[in-house]
Structure formats: C-alpha cells, structure tokens
Amino acid sequence: MELNEYQRGALRTAASRDKRNELLHLVLGLVGESGEIAEKFKKWVRDLDSDESRIDRADIAKELGDVLWYVAVLADYLDLSLDDIATTNLAKLASRQGRGLLGGSGDNR
To answer: Which residues belong to any copy of the NTP pyrophosphohydrolase MazG-like domain (predicted)?
Structure first.
C-alpha cells in the first residue's frame, strides 16, 4: 500500500476539519497513542525483564496502526501528503548519514 493511499483511507474514518478543536484532538491523539506504546514497553521492562521474545508484536502493531492513523489524518489536516513527508524524511536522513551526522542532536545537522 502506498502512503497516500493509506492517508486517503484513514480520512474515511476521520472527523471533519470543521469540528471544534479537531487539530488539538489529532495532536493529543497522536501523543496518547505514542504513550500507549511507551507504556506497553515500560511493562515489558518491568514485568518481562526486557525479554525480546516476549514482546506482544500483534498488540504493538495495533498501537502503531493507531499512531499511523493519527499521523496520516494530522498531516492531511495541515495539507501535507504522507508520501512527501516520507520522501523528505529519508532524504534528510541520507544527507545526515552522508555527512556522518546521524548521531548527535539538533534538527539542523
């Protein structure tokens, strides 16, 4: 599946842009779903001794799907295409790698 195809599909289940506070809803939803992934890994560390064979990959995949949905709909709300975002991101990372700057910090490396 292409990213823009996914984005169009995600929009079929999204609220209208005109809904009051929809932008804030999308941002908070993205943070919340990301937090759910972090919470699952916290419990994996706490309860399962960080044993990678015991990661519930199906459950993590569901949560990653929720994150992807929020990214897709938020991007559309801001008139951004997932294909463009992905292409730009890979180019940025390739540039950093080529300049030996993958490690470190700061957005403008």
So the answer is: 25-97
Would you give the DSSP letter of residue 16?
P
Collapse the DSSP code of 106 into the 3-class scheme (helix H, G, I; strand E, B; otherwise coil) and give the result.
coil
Each residue's pLDDT tens digit, 79-97: 999 999 999 999 999 999 9
CB 82 within 8 A of CB 72: yes
pLDDT in tens, 29-75: 999 999 999 999 999 999 999 999 999 999 999 999 999 999 999 99
Distances (CA, A) of 68 to 34, 74, 81: 10, 10, 13
- Say how far apart CA 47 and CA 40 lie, in whole Å: 10
What DSSP designation does 90 have?
H
Within a 13 Å sphere around the CA of 13, how many CA atoms are in the beta-carbon half?
A: 8
